Amino acid sequence: VIDIRKLYGATDAFTFDPGFTSTAACESAITYIDGDAGVLLHRGYPIGQLASQSNFIETCYLLLHGELPTAAQYAEFETTITRHTMLHAQFDRFFEGFRRDAHPMSIMVGAVGALSAFYHDSLDIHDPVQRNISAIRLIAKMPTIAARAYKYHIGQPFVSPRNDLSYAENFLRMCFAVPAEDYVVDPKMAKAMDRIFTLHADHEQNASTSTVRLAGSSGANPFACIAAGIACLWGPSHGGANEEALLMLKEIGTPDKIPEFIEGVKSKKYKLMGFGHRVYKNYDPRATVMKESADEILELIGADNDPLFQVAKELERVALSDEYFIERKLFPNVDFYSGITLSAMGFPTSMFTVLFALARTVGWIAQWEEMLADPAQKIGRPRQLYTGPTERDFVPISARG
Ligand code: ACO
């Protein structure tokens, strides 16, 4: 490659790092990952402790404010979130514009971006008070939008949020209740849902978070930035992997088909979805908790012998003792067991990434806020290594062969 910049006299240097494998784009005090040790800390607290002793709302407060809340701060934060769960009534008409068979993620990208048209009174990104209102609105309205995307997708009427329920209970009710029928959320299901949200709340500078930061660095409004994050999350190499992982387990079908499948992976015909991670070269600590949740839910619904779970467990056992996976440090990631758990809870595969987006919204918004609060914040503008032609003269169309 001729470095064209040299022809124009450039002397400055830059790093060429495709996929940003070793380039930090920002400083952050929110989340720490040690991929070799399998450690994930939010504001210093291990994810395992947050998943077992905290809850999603408290983790949201922690991510946004840097410290765990006092009881009074917690109560106020929870009440504020609860009071912002409703969507403007006109939003229903917006939903009706989508094809009824639209993938719920496509609805999420559009609906969350559209919040900037409905809630344009909190778009001043230079005002910390308005930034906070936007953050609250996003965290509070995400379950309502996600549940509506689901209801719309399956052709059922929308169920409105209720202020007397917890975040997870409210979401499950909005998804599974049918208007005019009694529906009581099983507390164990609500706890599992809450834990899934907590496990997905933030994960430092992954592709979607970096997308949110890059979009936000130009001064774009928070709703547009989160819509950009959702679009990025949708890809099968990122959040879309939970959907793909379950489809893969279904395709394998029974444990006896695993050796043949593994051979296909080794010959690069396909990837083992839900395995591998850019940063974790050890067991993903979220996967450990997610596996426990999968166990609990399957036991709760009396499906501990669920064939998909059996395939998953056996696939994990085989892969973890196979040289191919050991050499490449490929371990199950959070998505390997989240699909089984969500499926057992009654969600179709098309909703898996939607739930991920719902939970990750707090991480995205905390990172966006951290970036904007930094006085040294600059627009994100990656460099490139140009590999095209050097300068040449324009040829009129009549003279082109
Ligand atoms: N199955 C089989 N082989 C794999 C897998 C996999 N899931 N992941 C990586 N490898 C292999 C690659 O083929 C490569 O092998 P090679 O050295 O023989 O060429 C080697 O491991 C290194 O892989 P890279 O692609 O360089 O790893 P990278 O860090 O770029 O990719 C990624 C990380 C995208 C997550 C990848 O592991 C993957 O696609 N996994 C499946 C999708 C998935 O589960 N994504 C969820 C990630 S977690 C999240 O977003 C919540």
TrEMBL record:
Question: Which biological pathway?
Answer: Carbohydrate metabolism; tricarboxylic acid cycle; isocitrate from oxaloacetate: step 1/2
Arranged from A to Z, the UniProt key words for this protein are: Acyltransferase, Membrane, Transferase, Transmembrane, Transmembrane helix, Tricarboxylic acid cycle
What GO cellular component entries does it have? Answer: cytoplasm
Give the transmembrane region(s).
Answer: 336-358
Q: Name one GO biological process term.
A: tricarboxylic acid cycle
GO terms (molecular function) for this protein are: citrate synthase activity
Indicate the segments annotated as coiled coil, or none if absent.
none
Task: Give the reactions, separated by semicolons, that this protein catalyses.
Answer: oxaloacetate + acetyl-CoA + H2O = citrate + CoA + H(+)
Instruction: Fetch the InterPro entries from UniProt.
Output: Citrate_synth-like_lrg_a-sub, Citrate_synth-like_sm_a-sub, Citrate_synthase, Citrate_synthase_AS, Citrate_synthase_bac-typ, Citrate_synthase_sf, Citrate_synthase_typ-I
The annotated active site, in chain numbering, is 277, 335
Signal peptide span: none
Note the NCBIfam families from the entry.
Answer: cit_synth_I (TIGR01798), PRK05614.1 (NF004126)
Query: Member of which family?
Result: Belongs to the citrate synthase family.
Name of this protein: Citrate synthase
Q: Which organism is it from?
A: Brevundimonas goettingensis
What are the leading ranks of the lineage?
Bacteria, Pseudomonadati, Pseudomonadota, Alphaproteobacteria, Caulobacterales
